[in-house]
């Protein structure tokens, strides 16, 4: 079938191609994506019964699995359009709808109308970000990506940043972090950052020098140990560090953009 063919058009080739099933190596990353989807939606189940720690843990686990599936797909050479579509659908549910409902059940429901609008806005902005990403997959002209940057805040990171008030509340027990108006404004800010055109740092753009590599490895081990002992303070600190690094990404991309403009003259 041609790219412009409709459902009623006849096939443009004489020989039918027998559809092939997915190989085992293609099933593995898709199964991880499905597990991430189940984990994210399970977070809603825990939030319904006010088990906030398990709700956050389930969605954080979904983020870990989401980071694994793409890398495993590339490692097994099992990338596919099906996997990309499934991944986007899972991300929309796990990092858009699930965090929005968790935040609404946790605090936003105490803010009539505006609380629900904030939750809706977050879920919609997450879906819009993923739709923009899918629409640009085959686009060659992507200035941010070609320079090693991302456009806006990624969906899993956006979910983590939106949970910052809950992290601080669980860590400190201070109800000021559960103030509905504060949570609504924070949720709206993160939603805007997800669909923004700001250049943000990606893993590929962070390359420590040779003198720093051992220190980075040691820091990674310490962060992992901190997650085991003080998970909520650690997740809150990671969120704050990411926000603090956002201006760095903007300035580094601005320098890349100036170099490109000068080279084009």
Automatic annotation (TrEMBL):
Keyword Lipid biosynthesis applies: yes
Claim: Nucleotidyltransferase is one of the keywords in the record: no
TM ranges: 26-49, 114-135, 147-169, 181-200, 212-229, 235-254
Record localization: Membrane
Domain CDP-alcohol phosphatidyltransferase C-terminal: from-to ranges: 212-247
Principal place of residence: membrane
Entry-linked Gene3D superfamilies: 1.20.120.1760
Domain of life: Bacteria
Entry-linked InterPro entries: CDP-alcohol_PTase-I (IPR050324), CDP-OH_P_trans (IPR000462), CDP-OH_P_trans_C (IPR012616), CDP-OH_PTrfase_TM_dom (IPR043130), CDP_ALCOHOL_P_TRANSF_CS (IPR048254)
Pfam name, any one: CDP-OH_P_tran_2
Alphabetically ordered keywords of this record: Lipid biosynthesis, Lipid metabolism, Membrane, Phospholipid biosynthesis, Phospholipid metabolism, Transferase, Transmembrane, Transmembrane helix
Annotated membrane topology: Multi-pass membrane protein
Family: Belongs to the CDP-alcohol phosphatidyltransferase class-I family.
Protein name: Phosphatidylcholine/phosphatidylserine synthase
Source organism (scientific name): Alteraurantiacibacter lauratis
